[in-house]
Amino acid sequence: MNAIKVLITGCGRHSKALVQSLKDNIDRREVSVIGINNSAANILRSDVDKHIIAPGIHDTGYIDWLLDLCTKEGVDIILPYITAELPIAAENREKLESGGVKVSVASEDAIHIANDKIEMAGRFQEFMPRQTVVHSSNEIRRYAESVGYYTGTPLCCKLTNGCGGAGFAILDKKKSLDISLFNKIGVPRYISMEQLCDIVDKGAARVILQEYIPGTDYSVCVLADHGEVKIMCGFSGYSMEYGAVTSGEIMKNDEAYEIAERVTREIALDGNACFDFIIRKRDGKAILLECNPRISASVPFIAKAGADLVYLRCKQLLGEPFDTDINFQYGLKMVKYYEYYYYQ
Fold first, then answer.
1. Phi, psi values for residue 83, rounded to 5°
2. Residue 228 buriedness (CB in 10 A; 0-12 / 13-18 / 19+)
3. What Å distances lie between residue 237 and 20, 131, 209, 307, CA to CA?
4. Whole-prediction pTM
5. How far from chain centre, in Å, is Cα 152?
6. Which of left, alpha, beta for 245 (phi over 0: left; psi -120 to 50: alpha)?
7. Digitized pLDDT (tens) for each residue of the chain, 344 residues in all
8. Which of 167, 158, 164, 255 has its CA nearest to residue 211?
């Protein structure tokens, strides 16, 4: 089997296990990995065969720089790892692939829908929490009253274009003033109604106000082929840091699987994608929060459970056959540790 060279964009510390699983693949194939990142402080320096500081993804010369790099290094596959880059990669896929490299990204239409929390909420509101985009303190207070916030229905807020947990906070005045909770690992951010109103009135951000669903974080990662789910696997997240699961368990939830399959089909997702849910505490119902049409930081966990979805995506892009009948090791648990890496 021929060796391949893979380039991972936005390659940082959360990519370490991904690189390891690509190299430790089921075919024992030689996989070389180039990691690029525009931050010297955040770039992954271990496990990759080469790490390169990149221009910013919004720089006018970024695509030409990436194309030149792939040609120079003989890259076979580009794996975009950050949400903000997906529309850019989808728009420039033809140009990038003109040099012989394959780009792991869905269509522009699919990316536009999946990346847009407002669009997703409009299309799939039957599966998602009640929510709206707010533009003023008056809108916030009116919506809060309409959903019963003042009589006990909890609310949270998030950025319309945020990812990795950025911008998420739960409305709770008492906890928002508890300084012992600030930046505490495993504890979400809290904000008061007054603080949120002030932020929105100042136009500091576009904000979604959403019903907060108490429960357990749950995700379903899929490998899709133009709207058809080929493989999927779910896991519960018992603790998280910066939007990534640090303790979890491989677990099947039929309702979440059905929702992920329907959304994948209806927006024609292709390649790797991850659906985030809450398993509601009071009745066990799966509530869809969002869809990330890219590699998840937790796919190495799924690889250990039975299927390396990213390596299989590489095979898919190369037109190679692979087994889709996977017996996942449900009940497999994971805890994430950290280690030092020294360099000059």
1. -60, -45
2. middle
3. 21, 23, 23, 19
4. 0.94
5. 31
6. beta
7. 899 999 999 999 889 999 999 999 999 999 999 999 999 999 999 999 999 999 999 999 999 999 999 999 999 999 999 999 999 999 999 999 998 999 999 999 999 999 998 899 999 999 999 999 999 999 999 999 999 999 999 999 998 877 667 789 999 999 999 999 887 777 789 999 999 999 999 987 789 999 999 999 999 999 999 999 999 999 999 988 766 788 999 999 999 999 999 999 999 999 999 999 999 999 999 999 999 999 998 999 999 999 999 999 999 999 999 999 999 999 999 998 888 889 88
8. 158
Report which residue type is found at 74. G
- In angstroms, the CA 319 to CA 314 distance is 9
Q: Report the alpha-carbon distance of residue 264 to residue 15 in Å, rounded.
A: 24
At position 281, the amino acid (one-letter code) is K
